[in-house]
Model the fold of this input.
Amino acid sequence: MPKVFVTRIIPDAGINKLTRAGYEVHLNPEDRVLQKDELIGLLEKERYDAVLALLTDKLDKDIFKAAGPQCKIFSNMAVGFDNVDLDAAKEMQIMVSNTPGVLTDTVAEHTFALLLAIAHRISEADNFTRAGKYHGWEPMMLLGSDVSKKTLGIIGLGRIGSRVAYHARKGFDMNVIYYDVKRSEDFEREFGATFSSDVEGVLKAADFVSIHVPLMEQTRHLINAERLKLMKKSAYLINTSRGPIIDEKALAGALKSGIIRGAALDVFEAEPKVEPELLKLNNVILTPHIASATEETRDKMAELAAFNIIEALEGRTPPNLVK
Ligand code: NAD
Done:
């Protein structure tokens, strides 16, 4: 009976899919991220045919070596795969898969929730009310910024970026400007969107900038102190992609000194740590990497991660092989 190791407790939907396919599933006994040496120890103790891993697992050559030649696939339960050394996996002839698509709507919703919340100062207002500071309606109290008919800048117009643009255009009549390494003229026609051939063009034009590129060497610190200065003073930055795409210290500085008006972040440069200066600021909303965290979507992600394993172990090509 093929054996699968799952690096952390995940929704039953994923585990049941594997057991129904006739596999023996071994779960990380602790409900926490395994340290590298712990994961190596568990993988060396038994021979597994597949590993279902999470974005919090750093999957490098040592891990693939520990899994040994019997292990065919590491199935990452995330769309991002910046936690995986793909060259090492290739060298060890181990397949790597991810879970794209099933979380697109949920992450786009969370992105829009952050955008609306920062513009309408929802967190600040909630804290204010709970602190007993509301003593009656005031004409100048907690003034925010409109979203409708403003300009949304999308950096990375893939699955999630284009869904965010859809909500902006259809729901809030926003103008959309985007930057991506690939231009999409169909999208421009359908959404009346403008293509910018560089990041700078988006930063200068947008009232809200939302980041949706993957983390790679080319996108690390894509948003730095210099580029933040190009944004409007009244603009907001939203990031539900990966933390290291923004220089967090530079962002804290820009928020503190009024270079931009606000930010909303679901991801951080050195998770789970958050730049201490950000924690002191009112004009930033911080959520703990939960953009895909709905019951429905986590079930789908677990099922898709399991399906990729089943396809690999049955000798077929997994649908979401990362190349
Ligand atoms: P996708 O591959 O569909 O879209 C990425 C887009 O970025 C593509 O259009 C691609 O052409 C573009 N791109 C790549 N490199 C670029 C570069 N250097 N400059 C400009 N554009 C570039 O991916 P997706 O499904 O939309 O997901 C996007 C990212 O969102 C993932 O990589 C992941 O890191 C992140 N994510 C985060 C969460 C969360 O919980 N916060 C959940 C899901 C995804």
The mean pLDDT is 98.
